[in-house]
Write a structure and sequence with these properties.
Length: about 475
């Protein structure tokens, strides 16, 4: 069958308009793919790029095509050869070794950090007062510090370890990745090396890598001192400790450790902070959902605001809210893969040597989600029979074998932040004012302002957990 072509609008190449135009164009492509039966073709020079909007075909492709598109090297090459950008052979080797670093046992050890950081966030947001403000910087700060603490194993009492120079350099590097990705003429290494962006990126990358190497060397020295003294230097099992354990076994070199560490920090904090912005805006818009979430928090936690591992599992409505936010506003709205062999889909065959773009944003808006697919309704996640049957329908953390390794970490961290904030504040916002943009992730370009109103303390004695009640009224 001949695929329906979609042509690139002229303004996609108009200098600074390139980045802003990417998101509008991607939505056009997604709608066109749905109308065409789930797949269309774009042309990048002589190469065909197949854009998929069908959940079953998306699941097949992302389980079969594991090679990342060259786009990832362009945007994230400065990370090195880690999970996000590595070839298939390296990814398979490293993913197998790294899977235990996100085990439930390790994650449970992070809960004190998540609680401490969430409490500090709730306290610091008092500075915003009761007027409209943009919470983005608050979330970037707290998620970066949280990820660094769990990655590096630094002290909870020393928030200054991650200095302002490192934070600024990381922000510049991520922004530079988006700029290079959006300006297609800079995809050429030859042209890129003469650009002003290259100099800016080199300077930012140098700061980021210097920080990572410094912490790596410091942590290795601490471990050696503890080994010599026959004591333990661990307060909890940090990501870096697990990597150093593998280094001691000869499984990872220092360069490999730094690659994985930098990806975990950069990708982990940026995705979490953007998700938190979406959650706050959507909760602030839908007061009924916010109230139900608040009531669940009171029911589960009682007078405490500290989450333990049992609480995490009991906050079922809170998790439903997070999933619905990621459905309506996916932080990663699309992924790109190389097709290295012929792939048979339901109605088509993707030829080897082509490229593939899977459109998560479009999949989340298909009729399979029901007549209310364009509405924000977390209750759908509590009604399994009403959810789409396709395993490729929900793409909040990508799909297939090369999905997001940090999914359980993200759920636990974000859920803790949300609980602390909703318990302390009533949030107000207006999602209708949101303007979405796309750099390397989906972001709010405008309309993300919220207001916070401190909640009055509930009467003591009415917040008990009521452990004797076995029925969970929030399911």
């Amino acid at each position: 069958m001949t695929f329906r072509p979609v042509y690139v609008p002229k303004n996609l190449y108009d200098g600074e308009l390139a980045i802003a135009g990417l998101w509008e164009y991607s939505k056009e492509v997604s709608v066109a793919a749905e109308k065409a039966g789930g797949i269309i073709t774009l042309w990048a020079g002589p190469k065909a790029i197949y854009c998929i909007n069908d959940p079953d075909d998306a699941f097949t492709v992302l389980n079969s095509c594991l090679e990342k598109s060259y786009f990832y090297k362009i945007a994230f090459g400065w990370f090195g050869d880690g999970l996000l950008t590595s070839d298939v052979a390296t990814w398979k080797h490293n993913r197998k070794l790294l899977n235990p670093t996100f085990s439930q046992h390790v994650l449970d050890g992070f809960l004190p950090i998540f609680n401490r950081q969430a409490a500090l966030l709730a306290l610091e947001m008092e500075q915003a007062g009761t007027g409209l403000f943009d919470p983005t910087d608050y979330f970037r700060e707290v998620t970066l510090e949280t990820v660094c603490q769990t990655a590096f194993g630094i002290s909870l009492d020393d928030r200054s370890v991650i200095d302002s120079e490192y934070k600024e350099a990381l922000a510049v590097a991520l922004d530079g990745s988006a700029q290079r990705l959006g300006r297609f003429w800079l995809h050429s290494d030859f042209l890129y090396q003469f650009s002003a962006l290259r100099k800016t990126m080199d300077e930012a990358e140098a700061v980021v890598h210097k920080m990572s190497k410094s912490v790596l060397n410091k942590r290795r020295a601490e471990r050696q001192e503890a080994k010599t003294a026959n004591t333990s230097s661990r307060r909890f099992i940090a990501f870096l400790d697990l990597l150093l354990d593998m280094s001691d076994d000869g499984s990872f070199s220092d360069d490999q450790i730094l690659n994985e560490l930098n990806i975990f920090i950069a990708a982990g904090h940026d995705t979490s902070s953007r998700a938190l912005v979406s959650i706050m805006v959507l909760l602030g818009t839908h007061q009924d959902v916010q109230e139900k979430l608040y009531q669940e928090v009171i029911y589960v936690l009682g007078p405490s605001s500290y989450l333990d591992k049992e609480d995490i599992a009991r906050l079922v409505y809170t998790e439903a809210v997070i999933k619905e936010v990621l459905r309506v506003s996916p932080v990663v709205p699309m992924v790109a893969r190389e097709v290295d062999k012929d792939i048979k889909l339901k109605n088509y065959t993707l030829p080897a040597g082509s490229g593939c773009l899977v459109l998560f944003w479009g999949i989340h808006r298909l009729p399979i989600w029901g007549a209310d697919r364009l509405q924000f309704r977390p209750e759908r996640w509590l009604e399994p029979s009403s959810l789409p049957r396709s395993p490729g329908a929900f793409c909040g953390f990508s799909l297939g074998r090369r999905n997001c390794i940090g999914k359980p970490y993200a759920y636990m961290a974000v859920k803790t932040m949300v609980v602390h904030l909703v318990r302390k504040y009533r949030i107000t916002a207006d999602y209708s004012k949101v303007k979405l943009d796309y750099d390397v992730l989906l972001k709010y370009g405008d309309g993300q302002h919220i207001t916070l109103q401190p909640r009055k303390e509930r009467e003591e004695g009415k917040e008990g957990r009521e452990d004797e009640v076995k029925e969970d009224k929030f399911r």
